Amino acid sequence: MAMHERLRALAAEARELWVPSSETVERRSCIGLDPHSFFRDFVARSVPVVLEDGMDEWAARANWTSWTGLRSAVGDSTRVSVNYTPAGLGDHVEHGVFVKPERRVMEFAEFCRQLCEKDYSAGVPYLSEQNDSLRLELPALMADVIEPRFAPAAFGAEADAVNLWIGDEASTTVAHRDYYENLYFMVSGSKQFTLLAPTDLALLERKWVQQAQYEYDAATSEWRTCFEPESPRIPWITSDITDAAALRVLAPEAPAVRITLRAGEMLYLPCNWVHAVQHVASSAPTVAVNYWYSRPDYFISPVHVLTDFVQQLALSPDVAPGGQSVY
Ligand SMILES: O=C(O)CCC(=O)C(=O)O
């Protein structure tokens, strides 16, 4: 059996023994959730879970759910970093090149105006810097959020980053995976998460691609793609995992797990799970905060060793879908 076929068989088996479906993904209350149970039931097994009742004490749940409240919490003249793209696709592969959004720094009031008026004339704005943006750019807002008590003990680490996400349905985060354990909190509005297990990676189309960055030329109203010849090529998933019909053809043994995350809910997304994220349209702001944790080596369980191995195999040329080279 060719390596690709073996990985397909592994993905199917993993689904029987380990990976939940959209219907069986667990929802659990945070009330009384201790670090040991969270670690045992989800972190050690690398299984996503939606946690409820965990944000009841967050001032953000009262203060950030209207445009007026959000603007008064952040401050109209506070400067924030915003990512812009021509069509709302964040980091993604276009014409065989990995393109990153253009980062602009602006007053928060102007960012809110563009979102409220749907003014995308100079690109689609998404406040989505993943550089510890909440702690670094808006430290005063940290008083409105509370890290769950069970998290640092369960992950064996303090959070590496606390990120803020504000956008609307014009923006989409395409399929990718992160090396972080992710606690994703929906403060206002809803988002649709589409997830695939790490063992499904080999079933998806992947490419090693050159990196580039969008640049908008205000004088001509045109977008340019500026190549970064110094940056290394990176592996990136090019399948659209939100397209259920296409996924059924590509990876029949891997139906995606779909979760609608609503205001007040948090998602534990284990590292290496493939995910794509879409906004659910709303007149209220769509705001989320996520905590990223790097797992220390002594927290690695056999399931992590297995999934790391599958990731390495999936990125080697001889296991590309259909036997074609991904390079
Ligand atoms: O909310 C989003 O648009 C993307 C979130 C995400 O990819 C992440 O938290 O890793």
Automatic annotation (TrEMBL):
<dbReference type="InterPro" id="IPR041667">
    <property type="entry name" value="Cupin_8"/>
</dbReference>
<dbReference type="InterPro" id="IPR014710">
    <property type="entry name" value="RmlC-like_jellyroll"/>
</dbReference>
<protein>
    <submittedName>
        <fullName>JmjC domain-containing protein 7</fullName>
    </submittedName>
</protein>
<dbReference type="Pfam" id="PF13621">
    <property type="entry name" value="Cupin_8"/>
</dbReference>
<feature type="domain" description="JmjC">
    <location>
        <begin position="125"/>
        <end position="310"/>
    </location>
</feature>
<dbReference type="InterPro" id="IPR003347">
    <property type="entry name" value="JmjC_dom"/>
</dbReference>
